[in-house]
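Folded chain entry —
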Amino acid sequence: MPILDDKVIKEVKKTLANMQKPVTLKFFTQPFECAYCKDTHQLLEEMCAVNDKLSLEVHQFDSDKAAVEAYGIDKIPAFAIIGERDYGIRFFGIPAGYEFSSLLSAIMTVSTGITKLKPDTMGFLDNLTKPVHLQVMVTPTCPYCTKAVILAQQMAYYSDKVKADMVEVSEFPHLAQKYSVQGVPRTIINETSFMEGAAPEAMLLAKIKEIL
């Protein structure tokens, strides 16, 4: 039974029709001890069937150690959005509910090279010398999470010093405990600080500056 209904497929086709460069979804899965691997795999397959510029590459988390290490995958289901290069954009957990739109946004950003970052943000990222790792904790029912995820992804696309993870936190309760997640979105910055809520771009930028 399909995960995406006809209405959603129609919208996906409309959005992906504007793709310019090919994008590969490098998906990491395993056949055991992964509640959402099968559904995530099917979701990505259905998406890739919509546009020939979008392709799926499947890796086994338990056996393909080289790829796991190369793409920094430490939990599953997971996939990386790869274009002309690896921009450090990762999804951990199924991008269901509101997060489906952040998946479409990531694909289009990598395919077209278009971001909506402000000049101040781009100027800061141009001069960034230290790595920045943004982990955005989300749930599928959170209408505000997508904004935080897309902002992190666009920063990662723009700068090779930035990595951006969407983490569906209900699938990884140990991370909810580790980062004391009481509400979402919560953006963890370099494991040492966090930003609560769908903060405006300027506020996230100020927080990053504060800890570097």
The mean pLDDT is 97. The domain at 6-211 is CATH 3.40.30.80 (Glutaredoxin). The chain has one domain: 6-211. The CA atoms of residues 193 and 211 lie 7 Å apart.
